[in-house]
């Protein structure tokens, strides 16, 4: 379900980031950024806050995982390229934290897409419309929401990466 942009989303991101810092990052050099559609002012989105967390390496995440789980985050996602933790409230997903190692950070396509959409409002508008079309296609039983919006995401990520001198990557990381 897509909803209109909520000006509270940045504050919600800050609260989730502060929580992750408080429970897991006391002595670590983790950087946490707001990604996904809720990071784009004015964009319709699912009301789920996406976070990108830069960690040193996988053992850094593993050492702090129990503290995150004790705070209510749970490991779980079909993504296999990096750890993902989910936060729910009453069984409803409210936040997703993606953990990326330092050497991958500058090439993380979720961050690159966010930056591109912030810098190119015409593409943000195209993406927003494509998301609405994806919801309609899913409602008609033609495809899943993610599959329906994948072509525009792939196009935008490819263009954004090219602008940074990076090669294209498949956006599917499952």
Can you give a write-up of this model?
- The protein has 174 residues and is of the alpha+beta class.
- The chain is 45% helix and 18% strand.
- The protein contains five helices and five strands, in the order αββαβββααα.
- It has helices spanning 9-24, 58-70, 109-119, 121-139, 145-163; strands at 31-35, 49-55, 73-75, 84-89, 92-101.
- It has a five-stranded mixed β-sheet with strand order 1-2-5-4-3, sandwiched between helices.
- A hairpin with a 2-residue loop joins strand 4 and strand 5.
- Helix 3 packs across helix 4.
- The two termini are 22 Å apart.
- The model has no long low-confidence stretch (mean pLDDT 92).
TL;DR?
The chain is α+β, with helices and mostly antiparallel strands. Helix content is 45%, strand content 18%.
User: How is the biggest beta sheet arranged?
Assistant: 5 strands, mixed
Oligomeric category:
single chain
Strand order of the largest sheet: 1-2-5-4-3
What's the total count of β strands?
A: 5
Low-confidence stretches: none
Protein structure class: alpha+beta
| Overall pLDDT | 92
Tell me roughly what share of residues is in helical segments. Answer: 40-55%
- The best one-word shape is globular
Keywords:
174 residues; alpha+beta; single chain; five-stranded mixed β-sheet; 45% helix
Present the secondary structure layout.
Layout: H1 9-24, E1 31-35, E2 49-55, H2 58-70, E3 73-75, E4 84-89, E5 92-101, H3 109-119, H4 121-139, H5 145-163
Helix pairs in contact: 3-4, 3-5, 4-5
